[in-house]
Write a structure and sequence with these properties.
Layout (H helix, E strand, L loop, with lengths): L1 H12 L10 H5 L7 H4 L2 H4 L5 H37 L4 H17 L2 H24 L3 H34 L13
Helix pairs in contact: 5-7, 5-8
């Protein structure tokens, strides 16, 4: 009864509405049909205009930059701690190779030996700084610290990658949306 009354009202006052004949003038003036990517562009259709999504996107970008910064800093500390471990005797083969190269450079004489002594003084200062930063415990402890810094660097990189995927959802989203997938 109500549906029939609604249809009569639409026919009388709404020109048939969506159930009536197609208005050819309207169809002729329509814009071309949008492709799927443009139609489902989440950023321009929603995120750009939504205050909460803009805040969420800013927080994800900040977290992504922080994760990248932590990853790079930990990577640098891992390399520095490993270098301190090698210089203090943890990597004797590498240290012996460096010493042999320095001896060869010193044998060449002249200004090369001046550069070599300056580098030795600088490396001594770096070694003292490395001992302060990397801590004592011998070369084995420093190698362990270098591995831990390396693990933290890897974790920062993985976090950055996961956050980049999450950031992409603000632009593209999931298609089809998970709620439309068959759960049975």
């Amino acid at each position: 009864m109500y549906i029939a009354a609604f249809r009569r009202w639409v026919d009388s006052f709404g020109g048939g509405g969506p159930f009536g004949p197609i208005d050819q003038h309207y169809v002729a003036n329509m814009d071309p049909r949008l492709d799927k990517d443009t139609l489902l562009d989440r950023y321009s259709q929603h995120t750009q205009n939504c205050y909460q999504c803009q805040q969420g996107l800013a927080k994800v970008r900040t977290a992504k930059q922080a994760a990248a910064g932590v990853g790079w800093a930990a990577c640098g500390l891992a390399i520095f701690t490993a270098a301190v471990a090698v210089a203090s005797g943890g990597g004797s083969g590498l240290a012996a190779g460096a010493a042999a190269a320095a001896a060869g450079a010193g044998a060449a004489g002249g200004s090369l030996s001046v550069v070599q002594s300056a580098l030795a003084a600088f490396s001594g200062g770096v070694l003292a700084l490395g001992e302060a930063v990397a801590g004592g415990g011998g070369p084995e402890g420093q190698v362990l610290r270098a591995l831990l810094w390396g693990a933290l660097a890897a974790l920062g990189g993985l976090s950055n990658r996961a956050l980049a995927g999450f950031e992409a959802k603000f632009y593209k989203g999931d298609y089809p949306p998970p709620r439309n997938l068959d759960k049975s």
